[in-house]
Each structure stands twice: as structure tokens, then as C-alpha cells.
Amino acid sequence: MSAPNLQPVVTDITACSGAGEAAVVDLSDTSTSRVMIDGILSRHRRIDVLVNNAGIFRGGDLPSLSDDDWRLSFAVNLDALFHLCRVILPRMIERCSGAIVNISSQWGLSPAPSSIAYSVTKAAVASFTQNLARDYAPHGMRVNAVCPCETHTPMMDEGLKRSDRTVEDLNKLSHLEALVLRRKWRLLWRFWLPMKRPSFAALWSRLLVRGRCA
Question: Is 60 helix (H, G, I), strand (E, B) or coil?
Fold first, then answer.
């Protein structure tokens, strides 16, 4: 993401009486990311929340995927997250407080076609998060992963260009209103069924009781 795209976010934060800073850093380079963290700590002395949201998508099946695309996918989607957590986590442990949010993906849980590099790295992010959460919960740490479905971002636009598809094509696959409506009906049916219709076990027990009392 370029600096001009970040500046409006800083403007919105300051407009709400907050303080914001923007910096463009190549997170695949551990030295530059370390300089960024040291600068933040020198100015603010602490980091309360870390959100690992950087990611790239390099599509293609295994034979067509280049070595560079494979390495870059791991460098940005997984290695950068590892390095940032390794540097910031000890600072949080010292205070027995802190939160880390890692952005994984539904594709890390259920891979999409021709997305092996992206899906594998996002699956690793989910596993990495589970390990951190288990190991550092006793230290007051909260570590969670968010696994969104397709989200309209510049990265998705770039992927759609390669596949000759549009956002409208994705919208045709599932409408949010329809998903919410189906969810509501499932909840209503789940709560209504036990109240209105006794289970088979309940009916069978009633028959047994009636048989014994006859």
C-alpha cells in the first residue's frame, strides 16, 4: 500500500481527536521492519495491539507457480508475521497484557482452486495463531485470527484481473441478505423444533411409560 492511500486514514483518526502515523515498510525485509518497531517504541514506549494484515496473492497451480512467487508468498504472508510477533511479544509479556490479531483467510481453511501458495500460507497463519494463543495465554496475552472470505481490496482486484472476473461476478455467488435470512431461519427452526416437536427419544420414553402404566 502506498503512502497516499494511508494518509486519509491518518486524517480520519486525527479528526476524531486521535493520533495517527503512517509508514510504508517492506515487511519481507526483517531489518526495515525492525527499524519501524524500534521507532514506534522510542516514540510511544509500548505496543498494545499488533494486527498482522499484510498479504499478497500469487495465483496459479503448482506447475505454473515460480520459485520467486512461492518464496515471496511465504515472506510476506507468514515470515513477516513471525518476525513481528517475535520482536513485539516479549514487550507485551513484560506487562502481562497485549493483543495480537492475525489475518488468515477462509482459503486457509478450505483452499480455493489455483491458489496453493496463498492458501498454504494462510493455513500456516491459522496454525501459528493457535500455537501462540495456547503458549502465551498464561502471560495475559490474547492471540486471535480472523478468517474472512473474499473482501474487496486492491489485492483482490489484481487477482480478478488475472482471472477475467469482476466483483459483480462474486456478488452473484452469494448475497449477504440471503445468507443472513437463511441464518435466521436456521436459528428459528433450531429453537422451535425442540419446543413444538418432541424428539424421538422423548416419544419413545412416553410410549414405554404408557406401556408400563397400562
Answer: strand
CA 178, 184, 188 angle in degrees (round to 5)? 145
CA 138 to chain centre: 23
What's the predicted TM-score (pTM) here? 0.72
Q: Clarify whether residues 98 and 162 are in a common domain.
A: no
- Is 1 among the domain residues? no
Quote the CA–CA distance of 209 and 118 in Å, as a whole number.
Answer: 59
Do 171 and 136 fall into the same domain? no
Quote the DSSP letter at residue 163: H
CA–CA dist 34, 42 (Å, integer): 12
Which residues are designated catalytic?
118
pLDDT digits (tens, 9 = 90+) for 64-87: 889 999 999 999 999 999 999 999
- Domain total in the chain: 2
Residues of the chain with pLDDT under 50: 177, 189, 195-198, 203-206, 208-214
Report the alpha-carbon angle 175-181-185, nearest 5.
Answer: 145
CATH of residue 122: 3.40.50.720
| Extended strands (E) in the chain | 49-52, 98-103, 141-146
Q: Rounded to an integer, what distance in angstroms lies between the CA atom of residue 75 and that of residue 50?
A: 18
- The amino acid present at 149, given as its one-letter code, is C
Positive or negative: CA dihedral 207, 209, 212, 214: negative
Any bridge partners for residue 143, and if so which? 100
Q: For the chain, give the number of residues.
A: 214
